[in-house]
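Appendix B. Raw example, untouched.
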Amino acid sequence: MSPMLDVSDAVRAEIGEAEAERLLAGENAPGSYDCTSCRAPGDTHKERTSTVLFVGEETAVLAFAHANCIPSQVVSLSEEQLKGAVRNLAPDGPPQQAQPAPAPQTPRPPAQATSPEASSLPRTDQRQAVLGVTCGQVLIDENLHPAIVVEPTGPIARPGSDGPGDDFLPLLIEQGFLPVTEVAQPPAQVPGWSVLLAMGQLHAILMPPTGTGTQPVAWWQAHQPLAVTEGWRTAATKGHKVLVYAAPAGSIGQQPREDLLREALEKAAAGGVLVAAAMPLAGT
């Protein structure tokens, strides 16, 4: 019996038509696997399974995920992130769970280097703005929602501006984020943005393509993939959505507990310095 594999056009274009057909025929596909998103076991002969191609500067790795968790897609990572993702796979898992993929059909451009937890938005001192990222769950309508809270370490200047002001919130509002007046109300989804959770860890927050590009780009990218709690990961993969909150430097702070994080969010909302957006999981 052929496996129930989904191979997206993007994956097919990378690995080639012949390799895609071999996968669909079951020649190079595993029977069982650990989902690259939720890490739970899967079976290609019993449930729809997505092929996920992780591509670095020099290597590529083909992994598998429940189709209900993430769609078949190509995920671009730095070479170091790709190696780290492969190391996170269970060493005693099926050998096909993460296998070297065929060389891409077209040469891959070098990945853009990023600083640890860095944004593409420059600081007033012309250095990259470092974004602090906190993961937690927010209770809305008696349901826990996975959330990411983003707060820069200092003021964010508009690109090309030499002024001393902080344009962090205006820049995000221009991208579709909306001001939050009440944390108890879930934010609306912002088009083109997504949260990349791969190998059960948080890798990046992606924004729409810039310029003439066609692929989403990393607005924030973890220097090393960030571990999330099992509850956070379960809620994210179940609802396929993450709530992303953002506030200017000094508005939230490092909160050791989720109840304190909620209080800080409510205080920022009351002060008019909190914006948010809902984003689909992965979505690349």
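End of appendix B.
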